[in-house]
Amino acid sequence: AELDNTRTGRSGSLASPPAHFDVTQKIDVNPPKGTRDFPPEEMRLRSWLFQNFREVSQLFGFEEVDFPVLESEALFIRKAGEEIRDQLYCFEDRGNRRVALRPELTPSLARLVIQKGKSVSLPLKWFAIGQCWRYERMTRGRRREHYQWNMDIIGVPNVAAEAELIFSIVTFFKRIGITASDVGFKVSSRKVLQEVLRRYSVPENLFGRVCVVIDKLEKIPIDDIKKELRSAELSEEAVEELLQILSVKSLTKLEEKLGSSVEALADLKQLFSLAEKYGYSEWIQFDASIVRGLAYYTGIVFEGFDREGKLRAICGGGRYDRLLSTFGGDDIPACGFGFGDAVIVELLKERGLVPDLSPQVQNIVCSLDQDLQGAASLVAARLREKGQSVDLVLENKPLKWVFKRAARINAQRLIIVGSEEWQKGMVGVKILSSGEQYEIKVDELE
Ligand SMILES: OCc1cccc(Br)n1
User: Considering the entire predicted model, what is its pTM?
Assistant: First the structure.
């Protein structure tokens, strides 16, 4: 159970614990609410997932970057009513600076690109895997942290960049056994929304806010959506037309509604044509209702969904051509996606695709009496110099104990240092899978 803060007298501020803080108090061994520990079994799965993130990113020629988890709060202050803003994990540090635990990676990436300025040549293809935070009232028992894989292409204005990003996620899914019958991508463009708002003379500065409201479709009652749109100064007619357009599920229908000249249509047609060339058409579908919940998207947006409809969005992304200039940087086009580490694991469990990642060690080395502990250490050092992994038994333990540990850590080979053999410069070897055993000179061990 979590410590009752009132009992420990701890305040919510950053002030150091009060002098009367009871240091003998039994601590709460659970991690803070909404956060996770990664003990070995969970860490093996996470490492496997991240290894796949990395290998796909490198397969696509992306370079890894990283940023501080702690950023200036100003990086995330956007006035579009986003959930990510309402849940910002922010505070004032000891230097009275307003700071925040990053809720996403894109603003940090934009900040770094601007910082690098002319010292980097475009296009940039960067990827990152980083922990992101939100402070949500635990009423819904949801997590407050997750790890996100991001891939971003900076400096390419056309949809070939988005097509490449979606293909990188398809490639990832295929690597871990997920197929087009398990998941798909809903794709749209915010230029659809932009065109409708333009036709109803809705001021540009309301665009981000309208997108954030539309993203709540199917999450809150339609009447609340309409109310929020009207409070964003949309006329009744504009609201109705907007909701009409958002229900469109085919490009042909969209063309009928908007006409063939709108930029959104050209982008989407080009994206679907490229998807066909890549060979992933079966993975994507047009869905005008997809707008994503981040205010800064300006063009193509997409999200990965589980076709059984049981899980939240697996990943999402899109084009954000204005973000860098809103940070005072040059007008540089950009697009990217975020892929969380939690929903994908739920999907793998649902589909029985969690890999068997038992611990592995090549050797377990033990001595038969404590005078030979040094000899055992020397044997371990020799093996490790040759790149062999070794679990060295560090206390004088009976063989029965050693065999049990060898099974638990899935050791492949048992190396026994016994006095008689050691006199001859030899050690005993037992191959644990076959039971085969023999003696060998230490120098010949490999
Ligand atoms: O995807 C929104 C989000 C941001 C930070 C932390 C968590 Br959990 N979720």
Answer: 0.91
